[in-house]
Amino acid sequence: MNKTEAKNRIDKLKAEIDFHRYNYHVQDKETMAPAALDSLKNELFLLENEYPDLITADSPTQRVSGQPLDKFTKVTHSRPMISLFDAFSEGDMRAWEERNHNFLKRPLRAEYYCELKLDGLAINLRYVGGLLIQGATRGDGKIGEDVTGNIKTINSIPLRLRRPNEKELEKIGLEASDIKKIYSLIDSGTIELRGEAIMSNKTFAALNKKYIAVGKAPLANTRNGVAGSIRQLDSKVTAERKLEFYAYDLLLDNYERGEVIARRDQADALANLLGFKTLKQNQICADLEAVFHFYNGVEKKRPSLGFEIDGTVVKFNDLRMWNILGIVGKAPRYMMAYKFSAAQATTKIEGIVWQVGRTGALTPTALLDPVKVGGVTISRSTLHNFDEINRLDLRLGDTVIIERSGDVIPKVVEVLKNLRNGQEKIIEVPAECPMCGGKVIKVGDEVAYRCANKRCYAVNLRRIGHFVSKGAADIDGLGPKLIEQFLTSGLIKDAADLYALKKADLLSLDRFGEKKADNVIEILAARRELALERFIYGLGIRHVGEETADLLADRIREMLTDSEKEKGLTIEKLTKYFQSFSLEDLENMPDVGPIVARSIIDFWHDAADLQVLEKFSANGVSLKIEQSVLAPNSAKSPFFGKNFVLTGSLNSLTRGEAKDKIKALGGKMKDSMTKEIDFLVVGAEPGSKLEKAKKMGVRILEEEEFLQMLEG
Ligand code: IVH
Q1: How many CA atoms lie within 13 A of 91 on its CB side?
Q2: pLDDT tens digit string along 623-649?
Q3: Residues enclosing ligand 1, CB less than 6 A?
Q4: Is 117 an annotated catalytic residue?
Q5: Which of 127, 395, 423, 652 has the fewest CB atoms nearer than 10 Å to its CB?
Q6: Ligand 1 centre from 227 Cα, in Å?
Q7: What's the CA gap between 652 and 646, in Å, rounded?
Q8: CATH-assigned architecture of domain 342-523
């Protein structure tokens, strides 16, 4: 390929690549598979390598380039990047309108353009002759920092302005003379676009997942994510962060506001035609009532937008009014940030719980003296990691400011150190894993502390999953995802903690609205009283499946007093009954061998297991005693409620089989002759029990009679 051919090919490749970039990153449409696009980019890269003098500033290969910078250079803004006045209520907005009314000394009938207030970082982009030549941060409003290399990595920012056709420009209401001016500015003038660089919630979550997995400190929020990405010196890092840019202002060099473009809605449409993303939610509102309606609608849609906003910005739609109203102090009269109130409150740190996540990482959660924030009572707040505790210099007993905005998890934003009284305690990382007792370690220079026991989290998750499963507590609706969310957020450590969940705790979680929280609380309340056998099964004692649990429940049932049978059994009492069993007692039960018996005994004497049982009890879980599942029709049988002892060996049944049959019909097996015994079943070579029975006048059943009775 000679140079002319190469240039032709390069021009075509650049246009094609940019077309698909624009479709994907600005229009949200994928018109070419990423792999194919990469292949075109690669061809372009190789050609440019061969003919370096054909590289242009707007080539897609120039998005990520160059060496990390030593520092940012300062740039002076062509027009200051001012700030905004804040309003938080309809009253504030009415007062604003009235102030403007007074300022203008005439009745105000203004049309407003209402926009979302993106929560990211303000950026000014300068295009000369259509080419992006500079990107700058706001800085102090007059002087910002040159971050061109970094913002070039943002795919929704065009390196060259799109040149709209006349029809498109006519459609947004521009006249021929204005259209000429626009073309002249694109071709040889200066156009500046201002807007917000943001990080979507999805990107934020994915990045943090990645960071946590490799032990890096997670980003505190999307705004910090953006600022940290743009204000760092290696553009390769910015590229990795997948930022987006939305334009919210358009400055035409040499023209006053309102001169070429009359209205804010037209400016938005033009920015879009020039190749930028604009917010499709933005709307013209005829008056303040319409503004309030817009604001309320946005607040409702806020959780599903996919990115963070902290309110709306209400602007005069007529851009000529911007010149008339002007600026007062540091902010303009012609627009207002109508914000959502980020609810804050002060409270005290009462404790810290350490949660063990999937990767074994220990995450601290602050236990708060419950406080109302934005209408809901909050009792916990995540602290992300130990570094966050250090960063805040947080101590037990500290008074802190917590903040909750929208559905976002409440967080500690500030420690009020002046309020300390010297009693505050330093928070330390536990030496042992709070979940499994394993060793807590710190790997290399990772931020996270981890439980060294690799299986810690998985085992716990499975145990809780087992407890809520159908054959056990049957808590329909508590799927593995929710359990994971509860576990990783530190709300629960075990199944017993489920019953201590409060609505306020749930509202402190991501994606938890009032309705979902109410549902979970209701489901749990409905399952607070559990059938004995289901509870035993749900405990997840090793080797105790549903059948063994049924048998054990039956065994317990035999021991109950009438009042316990009627009114139900406490967990303390159940524990006592289980603790009264010897290995032998258990081994005597049908189907219970030495291994199962050992495991049952171990469970009811294990300190950690007993603690969980105590928690079940403290959290109000009780047991109801229903008729034995093993002998559903036993009430009619002559065996029902009668006490049996067996001596000697039967011909047609083993001892175990005989016991099972008696129990299946509602009879109870006893080991020794006492006065409560109703029947002695006698086989060949009976022991001393026969003599005893005779003396006591207990009814004696020979094998044949016994079999007849069994058959009913
Ligand atoms: S208008 C006068 N429109 O809010 C400067 N700003 O609190 C405001 N922001 O620094 C420009 N969304 O970064 C405007 N739709 C929007 C906005 C918006 C977010 C940011 C902007 C500014 C900050 C002021």
Answers
A1: 0
A2: 998 776 555 555 567 888 788 888 888
A3: 82-84, 115, 117-118, 122, 138, 196, 248-249, 313, 332, 337
A4: yes
A5: 423
A6: 15
A7: 14
A8: Beta Barrel (2.40)
